[in-house]
Amino acid sequence: MSYLDDILKSRRDTRHFTAEEIPDEVINKALQAGHWAPSVGLTDATKYYIIRSTEVKSAIKNLFLEYNKKAEALTDNPEQKEHYKSLKLEAIEEAPIGLIIAYDRAVLNQFTIGTVGSNEAVKFSSVCAAQNIWLSLTEQGFGMGWVSILNYYQFKKILDLPENIEPLGYFCIGKPATNYDNQPMLQQLNWKQKSEVPDVTEITNVLESVVSNLQINPQSASKDQSDFNTLLQEKIDSKTKPIGALGILETLALQMGHVFETLNPKIKSPNIVVFAADHGISNHGVSAYPQDVTRQMVANFLEEGAAINVFCKQNDITLSIVDAGVNYDFPTNAKLINAKIAKGTQSFLHAPAMSETELQLCFEKGKSIVNAIAETDSNCIGFGEMGIGNTSTAAVLMSLLTGFPIEECVGRGTGVEDEKLIQKQNILKKAIENYAGQTEMQQQLAYFGGFEIIQMAGGMLAAYDRKMLILVDGFICSVAYLIASKINPNIKRNAVFCHVSAEQAHQKLLNYLEAKPILNLDLRLGEGTGCAIALPILKSAEAFLNEMATFENAGVSKK
Predict the structure, then answer these.
(1) By three-state DSSP, how is residue 228 classified?
(2) Which of 312, 227, 220, 328 has its CA nearest to residue 272?
(3) How far is the C-alpha of 546 from the C-alpha of 558, rounded, in Å?
(4) Cβ pair 167, 100 in contact under 8 A
(5) Residue-wise pLDDT tens digits, 273-317
(6) Which residues are paired to 226 by β-bridges?
(7) DSSP states of 407-448
(8) Which DSSP string corresponds to 303-318?
(9) Choosing from 250, 385, 503, 527, which is the catalytic residue?
(10) What pTM, to 2 d.p., does this model score?
(11) Among this protein's residues, is 527 annotated catalytic?
């Protein structure tokens, strides 16, 4: 066995350290080894922060302890929980030196060779640097431990790291106090055994993938429903009230009767589907929040802690969460519909957000998700979304598909301040100016679209085909509806616009669509919350139509 093999085999995730100080030349040599690591497109994006301060270490330790409680709660097995608590998973305060290895996502502001397939390639370069540092420290007789059980948003805040700097984690460095009999700690303590050999499979065949083309403006058969329309309107007008006295409830009752094709419409098994995805444009600082919040919020949905969870429970609505393209690998056992196209779109500032094949896949995924929900005997579906940066994507699509200037389509999104709002407008304006592609909608959607927005559009088209009532949430969902309506204008018959958002472009878009929203509550949260809040009003429309007495059977005189 070579000396390099010995180093590779003996590298450990160290958790126990002596109090021995680390000479500067050891750290400098290790960091130089990190600098020598491969860097995608020669971005040189890896950054390092050294921590020796007791105060800073203590603050980071508190972050660990807070998040570690969440980790403990992930198992209901008492024995496993106690075993977990006994593990030594960090040495933040004990290790002489703390190191933050991070990458600068601002390098994505320029076209970078090697990142076209995945923005994560920049992150992977920093992981290579971390491994080099680890091996260098091992060779010098020192060790390092990776601490990742942290809330990274708070982590960046307390350390005042720039918005564009994304840490891989916190690394503890020092002289190892034990080698665990030259085994990984988790193996030595019988938490889990490492396999003896690598898992290798040879691939010898290529599976041909067939994606159907998008059909624009399909011809739909129009049925003569004049007799049914008359009967439905007469039923509404015969209720014990002046004609039109229930206002929008009468409009909704009429619409529901048409959609369900019955004089006695009833909403069955309502379902709100939240589509989540990340956007490459978020790397350019268009949001008040970092991209990782998309992943954090999906986890919050799954833990039933978000606003949409509360409102769905309140109104007995099934909630479905879709990973349309989040920049994260969720566990395969998560209560999540996996429709991931990729780990986020590319930044449309310099390149297409997605390929035309990915665009078609989005439509197909969205349709298949809704078709599966329709098979559960659901006839009412609401659409919600989550994705840091998606108001930027929606604004550009709105501008291109309506002809409105981009300045009239851009809003504050997650709450950006005035200066950042101007920066957001300028970035999106530049992106549109940079576009040299075709003017056909399909090419524009591929260049500027978001995975969750296109999947919602596909889902809405399927919901129309399945004769479902379509609940449209706020600004981003309305842009998805705009796309769907350009493909099939008849979809308007099934669409209920639940509210007008506080996002400044939403009212303008609703006017363009000639749509009248049910509510105006200054909402701008997304997640489908407007759909959940509006559903009781739809149920009221259903109730009056099916249960309210008529003039005749109540013995009340008509006008």
Answers:
(1) helix
(2) 312
(3) 20
(4) yes
(5) 999 999 999 888 888 888 889 999 999 999 999 999 999 999 999
(6) none
(7) GGT---TTT--HHHHHHHHHHHHHHHHH--S-SSHHHHHHHH
(8) TT-SHHHHHHHHTT-E
(9) 527
(10) 0.76
(11) yes
